[in-house]
Design brief:
homotrimer; about 260 residues; alpha+beta; 6-stranded mixed β-sheet; about 20% helix; elongated
């Protein structure tokens, strides 16, 4: 069984390895896969974007553990959730909300059953002491209902993130996150653009206008600002061979407008 | 069988992958887990601290390979060692000594049996040519005694690191290492603090005094200097949302005093 | 079955994990090993050097996937190739050429059979959508001929990289790449130096002359410029405890001359 890890721990310390050790101590057959440990510190929104990027790629029943947890040691809930074919473990702090708009959860439970946790539980490292062992038991077949009581999925933090709006013939979305190359990933999905001739669209951000949505980076000379449908199926704004984030000074939340040329 | 790797190689080159290839060429079933490859170059003390952090977390019979080896190519010994339930491979340069104070070795052997090594052995990469293949054979069940002669555990380098002292009612320890967040990890163990009301203690380092040992980072506002029992069971000095190492200009070896308030 | 990954993606984003997910979705038994994701962006030459470093270390039938692909989305070919005991997947952009001088390919095929690809194929991420799934099917036993038509190995890009020259008693090679420590790795092989007393050789680069080829870094005081046969079996130029790349301002392609002293 596959267990993936997404954290803001970096890889200089032994923290990630301690999580792996805690998993393997319970299920030595688990295959633990690093997604990234370079979520910017405490940047829950970026963790949420990464979970969306991987949720459609991994085999059915993969367990994804995300630990970006500014509230560790407070009373924030830790959640286990199932979607149609994936499983997730994360604090209830906005990490899971955006994902659930795209992949609605079928079950959400709060982790309360101490018998699946390491003892003693440290105050500062619930990734190792709660999430890792629960992931390991889950990968061995324990039912989600054993980990704690079901909770109301509609109350999970972060479900109300902005949606793409249609204003007349115009589509208004926003930048959701930037990857480490400085590509700006929007909340506009390829499905929002269906049935339209993409070369006849303009994409506007701040004071810049991009003409046409192209197929790939190599379509344009180095340095060109361009819009494309990225590998995650989202509209992205990129600079060929450069960083759109730096060139535009853009940030998550910034508005992006898509309309017909002319 | 699990084999972990702790090195100062970084991850930009193929050196770590070459170690993994050398392991898998002998035992394709081995599960190789990265602990960290960002030990500061040649910082044996940090490697020793990392081994202590992971030794209590991994399943029984895990093999931990540590390669921070300024003396590669000289006559320094390479060691295989067993503790109650873990196995270790490292140069005899201080990497294993501190660990053995906490987890006494039951067997220590010097690696001399060339038949378990890659041929030819390069002068600069004993991690790939000696430690990796020995780890692989060990994970397949070879007995430690086949790798070379037993050595006297009391002569291993680094066994005589400073212990926590009791001076009257005061406990005197020291900073052992810093993690990449700048948290200062001391040699004071949670067991040294047993039976004491932690909120009535003061922790002094340099000219600063911290009142009380708290439960977690979130107890205090951002920027607060605080003392807590960290996830490794050690007393740590931290700055909430910052780096205690930078704020205090602290270094390994610096004295830490713990006493009752009043 | 082992599948290794060599890319210029870094590890901050989820791109590497998406490749792993795409592999595991087809072959959950695959063991995916990271070689490095820190090839300098679009530096095909460094990717080629890394493949050469690992090709002799991994067990037979390992599949090595290299994705340094400035031409993604253009009509450049993607190749599958077999050498005597290893397998490779990469764009035809110079990544495989240098390797094949040392390990001649027995079969080379161009990837054209869409039924082994993810659908739809994105324009920007052929690593995930073509190379990863083909690697996974290959690791499950699909024959290379099913992936597409055989191609003429002599037409693969990068087969004509400079060879070591003999000019009278002098050997003239060049710097092929630098590792992240600043060690300069040349195209001069240990076999080029056979039967010679290495302590009686001089190695010249730019205006500097190094006397003798030594056995290991520890032979010399810190800061010494030295020449040695590195762990890859190549002549390397290094600074003990420093960076030869920085000290010499050296670059790939720079000439290195080896001759007898006196």
């Amino acid at each position: 069984m596959i267990i993936t890890l997404t954290t803001d721990f970096g890889v200089s310390d032994s923290y990630v390895a301690q999580m792996k050790g805690a998993i393997l101590a319970i299920n030595a057959q688990a295959q633990v896969i690093d997604v990234t440990h370079f979520i910017p510190p405490q940047n829950v929104r970026r963790a949420a974007a990464v979970l969306q990027e991987i949720a459609g790629v991994f085999p059915a029943a993969s367990i994804h553990v995300a630990v970006v947890d500014p509230g560790v040691g407070t009373s924030r809930a830790l959640l286990a959730a199932e979607t149609a074919n994936q499983k997730f473990l994360a604090p209830d702090n906005g990490t899971l909300g955006p994902l659930f708009r795209q992949f609605p959860p079928t079950k959400v439970h709060r982790l309360t059953a101490h018998r699946f946790w390491r003892a003693p539980v440290s105050a500062t490292f619930h990734g190792r002491d709660i999430l890792a062992p629960v992931a390991a038991y889950w990968s061995r077949g324990t039912d989600i209902a054993e980990f704690g009581p079901a909770v109301d999925a509609s109350k999970i933090i972060g479900l109300s993130l902005p949606q793409v709006q249609r204003v007349g013939a115009m589509l208004v979305g926003e930048i959701e996150s930037a990857d480490s190359f400085g590509n700006l990933i929007t909340n506009v999905n390829v499905s929002d653009l269906e049935g339209v001739n993409r070369t006849l669209l303009s994409v506007s951000i701040a004071t810049r206008q991009i003409v046409g949505i192209c197929d790939c980076y190599a379509d344009h000379p180095t340095g060109t600002l361009l819009a494309l449908v990225g590998s995650s199926g989202r509209l992205e704004i990129a600079v060929h061979g450069g960083s759109a984030e730096k060139v535009l000074g853009a940030e998550p939340g910034q508005e992006v407008r898509i309309q017909r040329l002319g």
